[in-house]
């Protein structure tokens, strides 16, 4: 039976097999009552809820709210991180001024600041955006700073020997050389931003994914909770895809990407 | 000048031109140039003139200060308060080509140039080194020899009065290196910059240079002027090689490379 054995081999090596089997077992356990609805909704129920919430507009409207929080937070955090890294990376005086503070900041887990931010900014949008901004600043700062300092000194010297001014050196040599590091930092920042979003949205939200989850918890709607978890996962994937797309465009000169 | 000037005497050939004093002022003029790192004096009261269009090869043991001297001439290290005059139009070709990997080949060639028609100029220079077809390539896709040719094009597009080469072909295979010698000579004849080329390869120095300097103990320990046309140096090579290797303080263990009694890099 060569066809059957081939089929089983293809299935056996397929990366889809185990997730599908997992879903099937989950569904079966739900149908037989092994997993009660109030503990965890069945995959089919989750899919139904997803469709329902999408059609009713409940999911999209709350997603937009969450998305805006991430976007604002990231915009502020990433911009600040880049500016500070440029200050610290491009001048010794800037490093002396900026780096110690950033290192101190690094020792404080951002989420531990939540109570303080609530005291300062209340319970509206501001503390949520501020938390995201604060958390996403550091990966960008750290990576870009070390990227700038790690630019091949021989390339800088070579370019300088062709009469480039300091500003031209920064623009043509140092920043492009540090770009791969910046993108690594950006990727970390994006995933941290989503992580912080999840926690920040637990702060008395009246809209957003966190609000949906909180509500669902109160009504024991595990299907809605799972839908929201799925959306968080999709957000994370999308963020990663975004950085990959930027990398593919910005780093075309790299051999690994040239081969592709 | 208290450097040990040595001239090989061969009665049947007139191999070396007399040290005539040219009418044009030198493009490079160093007097009493000293360079020290901490207590380590690398270059010690060195005098050096290079005349317009002259092709000078600089030999010396590893660590003798060849790169240090070249960096000073290239303006990569400044020499405050010293009697150093070099032309402002000069270009350096390093051993590693030092192309910016994120700029296409032609943008590397015109890096830092001002003015119109940059792509046009880059294309002309690249055609001269036989790489017109790689104008839009990314540097990391070039072979070592190609990268070095781009580096040459990048230096020559500036029409420098002084071209500084620091072991530009050391990383290339023997055949490619020979081709590069031909190319460098062609370019030199076409553009006539003064050239200072640092090399470990005595044969390379003999094949290319008008004058060979040996740097030792921080001074020009010896120099050889070769008047023979470049095509007719085969006989001379053998004689001169053993002599230069002698000056360099080693014996000719390998065919062409100067041995490093104190360890190489
Ligand atoms: N920036 C520096 N600081 C301290 N010492 C240095 C520095 N640059 C060079 N030196 C020392 O100066 C000496 C000469 O170095 P240089 O690079 O000029 O040698 P070189 O003749 O080019 O040798 P090679 O043939 O191996 O390239 C070496 O002993 C080196 O260690
Ligand atoms: Mg050297």
> Which architecture of chain A does the CATH hierarchy give at level 2?
Orthogonal Bundle
Which secondary-structure class do the elements of chain B indicate?
Answer: alpha/beta
The separation of the N and C termini of chain A measures 38 Å
Task: Note the main sheet of chain B.
Answer: 6 strands, mixed
Supply the number of helical segments of chain B: 7
Instruction: Give the number of DSSP strands of chain B.
Output: 9
Given helix and strand content, the structural type of chain A is mainly alpha
**Which percent range describes the beta-strand content of chain A?**
under 5%
Compute the number of helices of chain A. 12
Estimated share of beta-strand residues of chain B = 15-25%
CATH topology annotation of chain A: MetI-like fold
Termini separation of chain B comes to 31 Å
**Any idea what the radius of gyration of chain A is?**
24 Å
Low-confidence stretches of chain A: none
What binds here, in terms of ligands, is:
adenosine-5'-triphosphate, magnesium ion
Give the overall form of chain A: flat
């Amino acid at each position: 039976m060569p066809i059957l054995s081939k089929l089983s081999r293809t299935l056996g090596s397929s990366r889809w097999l185990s997730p599908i089997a997992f879903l099937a077992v989950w569904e079966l356990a739900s149908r037989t009552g092994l997993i009660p609805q109030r503990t965890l909704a069945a995959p089919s129920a989750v899919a139904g809820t997803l469709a329902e919430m999408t059609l009713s507009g409940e999911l999209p409207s709350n997603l937009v709210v969450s998305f805006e929080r991430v976007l604002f937070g990231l915009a502020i955090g990433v911009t600040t991180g880049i500016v500070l890294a440029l200050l610290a990376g491009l001048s010794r005086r800037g490093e002396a001024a900026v780096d110690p503070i950033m290192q101190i900041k690094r020792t404080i887990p951002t989420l531990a600041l939540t109570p303080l931010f609530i005291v300062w900014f209340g319970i509206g949008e501001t503390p949520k955006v501020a938390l995201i901004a604060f958390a996403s600043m550091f990966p960008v700062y750290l990576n870009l700073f070390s990227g700038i300092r790690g630019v091949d000194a021989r390339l800088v010297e070579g370019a300088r020997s062709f009469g480039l001014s300091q500003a031209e050196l920064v623009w043509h040599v140092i920043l492009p050389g540090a770009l791969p590091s910046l993108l690594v930092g950006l990727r970390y920042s994006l995933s941290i931003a989503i992580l912080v979003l999840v926690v920040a949205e637990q702060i008395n939200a009246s809209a957003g994914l966190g609000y949906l989850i909180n509500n669902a918890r109160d009504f024991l709607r595990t299907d809605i909770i799972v839908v929201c978890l799925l959306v968080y996962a999709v957000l994370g994937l999308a963020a990663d895809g975004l950085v990959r797309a930027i990398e593919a465009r910005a780093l075309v000169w790299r051999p690994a990407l040239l081969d592709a | 000048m208290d450097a040990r000037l040595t001239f090989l005497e061969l009665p049947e050939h007139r191999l070396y031109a007399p040290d005539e004093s040219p009418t044009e002022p030198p493009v490079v003029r160093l007097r009493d140039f000293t360079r020290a790192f901490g207590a380590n004096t690398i270059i010690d009261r060195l005098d050096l003139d290079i005349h317009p269009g002259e092709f000078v090869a600089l030999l010396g043991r590893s660590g003798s200060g060849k790169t240090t001297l070249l960096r000073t001439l290239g303006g990569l290290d400044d020499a405050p308060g010293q009697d150093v005059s070099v032309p402002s139009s000069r270009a350096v070709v390093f051993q590693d080509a030092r192309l910016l990997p994120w700029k296409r080949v032609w943008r590397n060639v015109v890096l830092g140039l001002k003015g119109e028609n940059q792509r046009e100029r880059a294309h002309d220079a690249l055609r001269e080194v036989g790489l017109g077809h790689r104008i839009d390539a990314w540097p990391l896709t070039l072979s070592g020899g190609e990268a070095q040719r781009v580096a040459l094009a990048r230096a020559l597009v500036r029409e420098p009065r002084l071209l500084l080469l620091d072991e530009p072909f050391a990383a290339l295979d023997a055949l490619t290196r020979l081709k590069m010698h031909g190319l460098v000579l062609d370019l030199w004849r076409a553009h006539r910059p003064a050239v200072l080329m640092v090399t470990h390869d005595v044969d390379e120095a003999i094949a290319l240079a008008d004058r060979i300097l040996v740097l030792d103990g921080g001074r020009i320990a010896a120099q050889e002027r070769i008047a023979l046309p470049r095509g007719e140096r085969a006989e001379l090579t053998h004689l001169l090689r053993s002599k230069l290797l002698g000056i360099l303080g080693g014996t000719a263990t390998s065919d062409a490379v100067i041995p490093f009694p104190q360890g190489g890099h």
